[in-house]
């Protein structure tokens, strides 16, 4: 092997991803050195329990429960512990010692990203996080580097494999949510406590990261509107199918024109919710536990990035790509590349968003109801585009289910109109309200 300069690499965490990263570093060290221009010496792996079972066998002499020497003596520190602490403290300590950081920790970046990037800027270090937003899919570098000279207008992403697996099964098989969730847990796609996935928390963290990059604006996690998929049922899937849609949990990040809020006339919206996607849209064909990110840029046009959004060895690919990039920076010299957040665009609440909707209502099957519903929507600046009525008989009582497609409306207007419907006495129950994205 060429006599390369040697770089010390430390690994924090040896779970599903970390163990694969360590194994690949050890197995393909010579090849990675040729690509990086430096030998990558894995000097230690910090773990909570040295004797814990792991997916791959790792040299015991590399394992330690004391991360301190690794944090202060390494050129590159790979953080794959997850969670906020002790990951945040460890990363700050490593940065203070001059190390570059490679991480897949979406929760940490979405919560403390500005603090970490500022710390790195102070010492000329870099933080690499390709695996934090969409697993193995390369999306961070395209947004940060390839599209840096363009203006990203909109991102729609399926960024959580668990929810996509559940919704895809429900759509294609007519299965119930609870049954598919149980299967997802048995297959390892969902945790025993699936809250982070099915309630949209995981996707919201990734949306904050993507929006920060795309719009050069620090997006706090609490500014991301979040809804989960637990209310999606077979009837909603059937109604979507009949209307030519599929339901996907989307992370949507977009520029909005809003002179009332922003002196520049521009704001951004960042939101996560189940949405209706036209079946001819590329995102509609993303099946199973795969992820995809659809980017619309002013000059480049429409771009789509597709692939595995999770998995130990798949995510390890993105992590190792970052390790090679960090090593190349060390060899080339110079300060690290900081994050661009100088646009500082306001992040507006979801009420400012404009889109189309599908509203499902249960009403009495009697004359005058349709006119009353249409009138209440019209009074709220919501115009009806399509309407499908189904009669459901329960003994001697007949109930009508209305599936209403709207023209474009402002979210706040739609929300107010739906509230009026629920309070009117005309509507027995508001079954669901779904947004339409990707028209």
TrEMBL record:
Q: Enumerate the CDD domains for this protein.
A: ACT_HSDH-Hom (cd04881)
Q: Which family does it belong to?
A: Belongs to the homoserine dehydrogenase family.
- From which organism does this entry originate? Microbacterium paludicola
Listed EC numbers: 1.1.1.3
List each copy of the ACT domain by range. Answer: 358-435
- Catalytic activity, per the record? L-homoserine + NADP(+) = L-aspartate 4-semialdehyde + NADPH + H(+); L-homoserine + NAD(+) = L-aspartate 4-semialdehyde + NADH + H(+)
**Sorted UniProt keywords:** Amino-acid biosynthesis, Methionine biosynthesis, NADP, Oxidoreductase, Sodium, Threonine biosynthesis
Where does the chain cross the membrane? none
According to UniProt, this protein's pathway is:
Amino-acid biosynthesis; L-threonine biosynthesis; L-threonine from L-aspartate: step 3/5; Amino-acid biosynthesis; L-methionine biosynthesis via de novo pathway; L-homoserine from L-aspartate: step 3/3
User: What does the record give as cofactor?
Assistant: a metal cation
Where on the tree of life does the source sit, at the highest rank?
Answer: Bacteria
Q: What is this protein called?
A: Homoserine dehydrogenase
Q: GO terms for molecular function, please?
A: homoserine dehydrogenase activity
């Amino acid at each position: 092997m060429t006599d390369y300069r040697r770089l010390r690499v430390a690994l924090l965490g040896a779970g599903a991803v970390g163990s694969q990263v360590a194994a690949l570093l050890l197995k393909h060290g010579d090849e990675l050195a040729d690509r990086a221009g430096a030998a990558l010496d894995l000097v230690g792996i910090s773990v909570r329990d040295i004797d814990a079972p792991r997916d791959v066998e790792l040299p015991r002499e590399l394992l330690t429960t004391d991360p301190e020497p690794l944090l202060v003596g390494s050129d590159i520190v790979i953080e794959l512990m997850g969670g906020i602490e002790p990951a945040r403290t460890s990363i700050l300590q490593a940065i203070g010692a001059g190390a570059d950081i490679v991480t897949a920790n979406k929760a940490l970046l979405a919560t403390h990203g500005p603090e970490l990037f500022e710390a790195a800027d102070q010492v000329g270090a870099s933080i690499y996080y390709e695996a934090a937003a969409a697993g193995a899919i390369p999306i961070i570098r395209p947004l940060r580097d390839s599209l840096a000279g363009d203006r990203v207008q909109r991102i729609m992403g399926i960024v959580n494999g668990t929810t996509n697996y559940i919704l895809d099964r429900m759509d294609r098989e007519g299965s119930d949510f609870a049954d598919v969730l149980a299967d997802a847990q048995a297959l390892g796609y969902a945790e025993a406590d699936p809250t982070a996935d099915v309630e949209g928390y995981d996707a919201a963290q990734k949306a904050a990261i993507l929006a920060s990059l795309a719009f050069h604006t620090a997006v706090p996690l609490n500014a991301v509107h979040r809804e989960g998929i637990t209310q999606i049922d077979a009837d909603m899937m059937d109604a979507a199918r009949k209307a030519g849609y599929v339901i996907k949990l989307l992370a949507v990040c977009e520029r909005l024109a809003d002179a009332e809020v922003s002196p520049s006339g521009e704001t951004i919206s960042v939101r996560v919710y189940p949405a209706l996607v036209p079946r001819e849209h590329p995102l509609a064909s993303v099946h199973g536990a795969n992820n995809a990110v659809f980017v619309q840029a002013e000059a480049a046009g429409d771009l789509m990035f597709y692939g595995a959004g999770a998995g130990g060895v798949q995510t390890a690919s993105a992590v190792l790509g970052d390790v090679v990039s960090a090593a190349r920076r060390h060899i080339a010299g110079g300060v690290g590349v900081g994050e661009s957040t100088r646009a500082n665009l306001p992040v507006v609440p979801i009420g400012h968003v404009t889109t189309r909707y599908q509203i499902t209502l249960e009403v009495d099957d009697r004359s005058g109801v349709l006119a009353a519903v249409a009138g209440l929507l019209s009074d709220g600046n919501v115009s009806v585009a399509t309407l499908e009525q189904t009669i459901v008989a329960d003994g001697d009582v007949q109930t009508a289910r209305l599936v209403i497609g709207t023209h474009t409306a402002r979210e706040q207007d739609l929300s107010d109109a739906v509230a009026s419907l629920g309070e009117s006495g005309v509507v027995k129950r508001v079954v669901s309200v779904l947004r339409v994205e990707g028209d």
